[in-house]
């Protein structure tokens, strides 16, 4: 047995080697991982709960043995018996490292709570929900008319609301007679009509006129975050928006690593399905509490998700999505009871609708973006980019729409970055660098002040400056390119070359010092050469996907670029274009659509006809498969340069002059070594 072990924390991605016997809490503190504790490690406060992962983790190149942590001890047993703790959880102050291990820090154990940036976008929606409340007056029973109470409810619905073909489950029938009599033969029913169901289904009944609410959830189930909007099904109002990290991150940060986990660990898919369903139940309870409603008043859920998340939500092994021809078990829309997905936090009769997937790696979330942004109705050639751990791209107009997915990885989310973190208070989110002095200034989440503004230190005293999130690293790299700290190939220059002591040696490469908080016990935040490479790989995959669609469409430019998702709302078009993440276009033609996938989910939740619309539209969207398209690799290589090795950016050049510098002065051999290190 080795004398130390590799400890990897998710969702932060921070890792390090520690001596055997090191408490997990100690390892977390030394790595700067956001793991709470207020009792000094005595097993009293339970703030340091963690979730270890076991089995094969191909993404990290390690196998986690069942004995990677010390055994469950008396302190943990005492806490669980008195206070309760989810199965599989450990206390970070009690569990000690005994082998290589992957450890997830759940949201409730994080000091700086995740900021879920997928807020609801204002949208006018024609209300026609699949679930609605109807008040009816039911004929009383008559000795001369021996029909059952339910049959007379059906008759009342037909005569008073022109509703045909009504069904009810046994739990409704058991309660029907006392409810009818309590309401003096006047009742309110929650009635659901699925798009492909010939019957109307009674989900709930109340005596008299029910004045309580009727609610639905629109959920964007992403590989990194799960974002939910709680909507009033009577008027479409968004009562609350909330989100959590997807707990499947501990099994792999990207989709293919999760597929690999399922392949290499028997029962791994079941484990991931259970984790995500528990997270959705917890999120539903949290968002209901925030809106001060009873979660049992949630009668409908609409899901949008990528194909791997789609399969894992449904409990379908995603193994076929990990190999050509990337076959889906089901590509069409799906309607089913929420109980079949173990969504116990909702009303017991709640119904689920999942939008159709477009193809193997272009999922229901992309279909939701198409529903929200309607590229199929556009006169202009529009490029829609929804960036997450997996980018989904649409290109087209009223004549033709193409789609593809591109594996950007988690770098845009702040993962795989040396000082990277998820979006949380204290994370650097905006960066500017003076092109003459090379001095930076920045803003952090939770404050509107820049770091050189009076009062910044006081404003950030509570959160501190903890790291850099996805939007921050993107702006930092773009600013470094504009300031001449990074050359077109992505190399960081030395202090002598860039004329700044902020460029510091790091092995054979250099890094740029963005912030030094060591004097106050805070972190030292660098942008390293490895960070630059991670961003280059992510942006190259994104650009190559867009360029591939443009080739297929036979165009060299687009009229409009729409940035969707959290990325689109928080990255400036100029920085995205300087990096070469998106094709060249006039900056005023680059727009943000906010959380377009979430908006599409809300439209489908509130308007039943829109479900028929998107089900028809997806059949007309042509999917381009990046994984088997040889031109993708060529575009990917050319896109490694910042902004691009071949494609001109005339619109960008009109407003930004990029320094013509090259820091590859040590010869081709050294450059080759640098590339391998990145």
UniProtKB/TrEMBL annotation:
Domain spans labelled RACo linker region: 121-211
Residues of the RACo-like middle region domain: 215-373
PANTHER family, alphabetized: IRON-SULFUR CLUSTER PROTEIN, IRON-SULFUR CLUSTER-BINDING PROTEIN-RELATED
Gene Ontology MF term list: iron-sulfur cluster binding
Protein name: DUF4445 domain-containing protein
Species of provenance: Gemmobacter fulvus
Pfam families linked: RACo_C_ter, RACo_linker, Raco_middle
InterPro entries referenced in this protein's UniProt entry, alphabetically: 2Fe-2S_ferredoxin-like_sf (IPR036010), 2Fe-2S_ferredoxin-type (IPR001041), Beta-grasp_dom_sf (IPR012675), Corrinoid_activation_enz (IPR052911), Raco-like_middle (IPR041414), Raco-like_middle_sf (IPR042259), RACo_C (IPR027980), RACo_linker (IPR040506)
Annotated ranges, domain RACo C-terminal: 381-652
């Amino acid at each position: 047995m080795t004398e130390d072990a590799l400890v990897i924390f998710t969702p932060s991605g921070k890792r390090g080697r520690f001596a055997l016997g090191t408490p997990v809490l100690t390892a977390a503190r030394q790595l700067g991982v956001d793991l709470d504790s207020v009792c000094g490690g005595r097993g009293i406060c339970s703030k340091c709960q963690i979730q270890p992962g076991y089995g094969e983790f191909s993404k990290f190149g390690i196998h986690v043995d069942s004995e990677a942590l010390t055994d469950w001890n008396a302190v943990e047993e005492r806490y669980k018996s008195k206070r309760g703790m989810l199965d599989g959880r450990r206390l970070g102050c009690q569990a000690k490292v005994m082998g290589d291990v992957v450890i997830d820090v759940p949201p409730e154990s994080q000091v700086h709570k995740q900021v879920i940036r997928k807020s609801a976008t204002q949208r006018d929606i024609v209300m026609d929900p699949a679930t609605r409340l109807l008040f009816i007056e039911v004929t009383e029973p008559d000795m001369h008319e021996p029909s059952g109470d339910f049959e007379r409810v059906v008759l009342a619905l037909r005569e008073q609301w022109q509703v045909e073909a009504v069904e009810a489950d046994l739990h409704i029938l058991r309660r029907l007679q006392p409810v009818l009599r309590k309401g003096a033969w006047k009742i309110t029913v929650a009635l659901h009509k699925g798009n492909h169901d010939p019957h109307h289904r009674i989900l709930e009944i109340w005596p008299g006129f029910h004045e309580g609410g009727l609610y639905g959830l629109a959920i964007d189930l992403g590989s990194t975050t799960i974002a939910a909007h709680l909507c009033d099904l009577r008027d479409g109002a968004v009562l609350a928006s909330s989100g959590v990290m997807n707990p499947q991150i501990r099994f792999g940060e990207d989709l293919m690593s999760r597929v690999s986990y399922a392949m290499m660990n028997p029962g791994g898919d079941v484990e991931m399905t259970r984790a995500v369903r528990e997270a959705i139940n917890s999120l539903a309870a949290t968002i209901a509490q925030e809106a001060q409603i009873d979660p049992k008043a949630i009668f409908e859920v609409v899901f949008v998700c990528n194909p791997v998340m789609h399969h894992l939500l449904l409990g379908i092994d995603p193994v076929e999505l990990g190999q050509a021809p990337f076959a889906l078990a089901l590509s069409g829309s799906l309607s089913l009871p929420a109980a079949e997905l173990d969504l116990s936090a909702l009303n017991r009769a709640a119904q689920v609708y999942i939008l159709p997937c477009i193809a193997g790696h272009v999922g229901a979330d992309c279909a939701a973006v198409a529903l929200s942004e309607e590229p199929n109705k556009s006169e202009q050639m529009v490029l829609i980019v929804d960036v997450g751990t997996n980018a989904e791209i649409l290109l087209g107009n009223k004549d033709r729409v193409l789609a593809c997915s591109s594996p950007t990885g988690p770098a845009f989310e702040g993962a795989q970055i040396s000082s990277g973190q998820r979006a949380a208070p204290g994370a650097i989110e905006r960066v500017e660098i003076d092109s003459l002095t090379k001095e930076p200034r920045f803003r952090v989440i939770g404050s509107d002040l820049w770091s050189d503004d009076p009062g910044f230190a006081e404003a950030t005293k509570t959160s501190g400056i903890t790291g850099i999130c996805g939007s921050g690293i993107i702006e930092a790299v773009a600013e470094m390119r504009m300031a001449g700290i990074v050359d077109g190939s992505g190399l960081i220059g030395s202090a002598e070359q860039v004329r700044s002591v902020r460029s510091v040696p790091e092995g054979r490469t250099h890094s740029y010092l963005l912030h030094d908080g060591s004097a106050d016990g805070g972190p030292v935040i660098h942008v390293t050469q490895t960070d630059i490479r991670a961003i280059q790989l992510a942006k190259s995959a994104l650009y190559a996907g867009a360029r591939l669609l443009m080739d297929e469409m036979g165009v060299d430019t687009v009229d409009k670029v729409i940035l969707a998702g959290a990325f689109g709302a928080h990255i400036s078009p100029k920085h995205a274009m300087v990096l070469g993440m998106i094709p060249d276009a006039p900056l005023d033609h680059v727009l943000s659509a906010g959380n377009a996938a979430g908006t599409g989910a809300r439209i489908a939740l509130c308007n039943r006809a829109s479900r028929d619309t998107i089900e028809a539209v997806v059949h007309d969207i042509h999917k381009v498969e990046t994984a088997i398209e040889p031109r993708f690799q060529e575009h990917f290589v050319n896109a490694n340069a910042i902004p691009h090795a071949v494609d001109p950016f005339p619109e960008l050049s009109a407003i930004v002059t990029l320094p013509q510098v090259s820091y590859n002065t040590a010869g081709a051999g050294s450059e080759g070594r640098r590339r391998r290190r990145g």
